[in-house]
Amino acid sequence: MVQGTEGYRFRNWANTYSCCPELHFKPISVEEVRQIIELAKQRSKRVKIVGCGHSPSDIVCTDDYLVNLSNLNKLLKVDKEKQQVTVEAGMVLSDLNEELATLGLALSNIGAVSDVSVGGVIGTGTHNTGIQHGILATQVVALTLMTASGEILECSDSVNREVFQAAQLHLGALGVILTVTIQCVPAFHIQLQRFPQTLSEVLTNLDAHLKESEYFRFLWFPHTDKATVFYGDHTDKPIQTSSNWLWDYAIGYYLLELLLWISTFFPCLVPWITRFFYWLVYSAKVMQVKRSDRAFNFECLFKQHVSDWAIPIEKTGVVLGQLKEWLDRNPDVRVHFPVEVRFVHADEIPLSPCYKQDSCFINIIMYRPYGKEVPRKRYWVMYEEIMTRNGGRPHWAKANSCVHKDFENMYPAFQKFCTIREKLDPLGMFLNNFLEKAFF
Question: How far apart are the two ends of the chain, measured CA to CA in Å?
Answer without folding.
Answer: 35
